Amino acid sequence: MQKVFPIAALILGLSVMTQAWSANLCPPHAVRIALYEAGLFYFDGKGIDREMANELQSRTGCIVEATPLPRARAYFLLEEGHTDIVMAAVVNPKRDQYAFFIPYMQQRFVTVIHMDVPVEKTTLAAFAADPALHFGAVRGVNYGGGRDDWYARMEREQRLELGSGMPNVFRMLKSRRFQALFAVPLQYEKELADAGMSDQVRVVDWFPNEPPAARALAMSRKNFTAEQLKGWTEVVQSMKSDGTIKRILAKYLSAAEASKAVIK
């Protein structure tokens, strides 16, 4: 009897698995993925989420069309069923009606504050108490927990400035349209460097007791069945289990930060 060596058996197993997944997981059209053009998530045709999309295509066997879209438009199209997956989505129960979330990484949001703000006004309470200080955000984003409450407060007090995307929002910060925003290291490190203002901000944590925000695939409930969503969850779990997600993260983060970003 012919021997099947371990490597060959693994390749054969993955091939069979991909064919089985492909038969069951793909909608009748190419899977339309909305990428998040923000820092190292997606930039210049590459980034963490571009690599994630490539790996998902390889493992599911589905044809993938990945396009960067503004957050607000991406979620609108997801709700309407005109986009199938939004990458780097923050889990949001308000979107449960039309989206199914599959978390794949995590990072802490911090507050990036322009150096023009006096240090004594960089605490949550002191910033909130000064109506002259404004806050910035990408239109259509959410953060979870107390940060969403803060966003709502800034909106009520007419102190919220919105931009279409993360590069645009950091340009607004540089031009002093507002004085602070929430971001994760994967976003702010690159955006600050691109804007030439890495030495012009302070980074503080206004919500130190809250857990890191999970980033997820937000998948259209209109375009995937419950059985397909279960299958995609298994695909993402396989990418966690075999270290693929950690290897992708390690290309853009230090080894220590990549380990922290992996959801166990």
From TrEMBL:
Key words, A-Z: Signal
Signal sequence region: 1-22
Domain of life: Bacteria
One Pfam family this sequence matches: SBP_bac_3
Keyword Signal: yes
UniProt-listed SUPFAM superfamilies: Periplasmic binding protein-like II
InterPro entries hit by this protein: Solute-binding_3/MltF_N
Occurrences of domain Solute-binding protein family 3/N-terminal (ranges): 46-254
Gene3D superfamilies: Periplasmic binding protein-like II (3.40.190.10)
Protein's UniProt name: Solute-binding protein family 3/N-terminal domain-containing protein
